[in-house]
Design a protein that fits this description.
Layout (H helix, E strand, L loop, with lengths): L1 H26 L6 H10 L2 H9 L1 H13 L5 E5 L6 H10 L3 E2 L6 E5 L9 E7 L5 E6 L5
Parallel strand pairs: 1-2, 1-3
Antiparallel strand pairs: 3-5, 4-5
Helix pairs in contact: 2-3, 3-4
Length: 142
């Protein structure tokens, strides 16, 4: 009889500690605005969910690139680590343009400085040249 009370008390203590830990995780400090982004994702419709996931500025920049790069053209995007999630997302949105690292028609630079790559000239800049650049290979006609 005494043994079952001990087990019951131990189980109650474990459940209270487990509940307290989960409550702590729910009300802990918001890391990098994750709760705000999650709320935006739940409130958005199907069309804007992709924009929320990508980030407004990055998604708008990729739309800018997609609108200015003709279908079938080649590009190289830099400013990201190779095969990072942002690079893969960019490839997805820029389709049907193809990635070419040897001699692309366009070079895309997101963020950072506006250093023009050798053999290219600035074609267009996004957000008045503060966040992204689109460079066209010299001698290439669109």
């Amino acid at each position: 009889m005494n043994n079952s009370r001990t087990i019951k008390k131990t189980l109650i203590v474990v459940l209270i500690v487990w509940t307290a830990i989960w409550l702590f995780f729910l009300v802990r400090e918001d890391k990098d605005g994750q709760y705000r982004v999650l709320g935006d994702l739940y409130r958005s419709n199907d069309e804007t969910k992709v924009k929320v996931v990508y980030g407004n500025d990055f998604y708008d920049f990729l739309e800018f690139c997609r609108d200015n790069i003709p279908a079938g053209a080649t590009y190289e995007i830099y400013g990201f680590e190779k095969y990072s999630i942002d690079e893969v997302r960019a490839r997805y949105l820029l389709f049907p343009a193809r990635v070419d690292t040897k001699n692309p028609d366009f070079k895309i630079k997101y963020g950072g400085n506006a250093e023009v790559p050798s053999g290219y000239s600035e074609f267009k800049s996004y957000n008045k040249g503060k966040r992204g650049y689109l460079y066209l290979r010299r001698g290439n006609r669109i």
